[in-house]
Amino acid sequence: METVLIVGSTGNIGIAAAHGALQPGRKVLAVVRSQASADKLIKAVGSADGITTVVADVTSDTGIKGVVDRVRAGELPAFQHVYACGELPSC
């Protein structure tokens, strides 16, 4: 099973990306700003099946590191693909 990490998953493009990624054999790990954003995504997609949401601030190094640390700890699914629908800070 492959997982697509989607950053910026609750805007129009992000929701479309989540729809596209949710096909047989794939799941989505959606990074969202708040639980309200997660609820918006689930409502737009129509189901929470195959979607794991995580609240994080990707504009900070600690927010990104927190997601990666949780993946490494097995708290979140490992991902094989990344789709960024927003502006990320420069590294």
Automatic annotation (TrEMBL):
Q: Which SUPFAM superfamilies match?
A: NAD(P)-binding Rossmann-fold domains (SSF51735)
Family matches, as InterPro entries: NAD(P)-bd_dom_sf, SDR_fam
What Gene3D superfamilies does this protein map onto?
NAD(P)-binding Rossmann-like Domain
Q: Where on the tree of life does the source sit, at the highest rank?
A: Eukaryota
Q: What is this protein called?
A: Uncharacterized protein
Task: Supply the source organism for this entry.
Answer: Pyricularia oryzae (strain Y34) (Rice blast fungus)
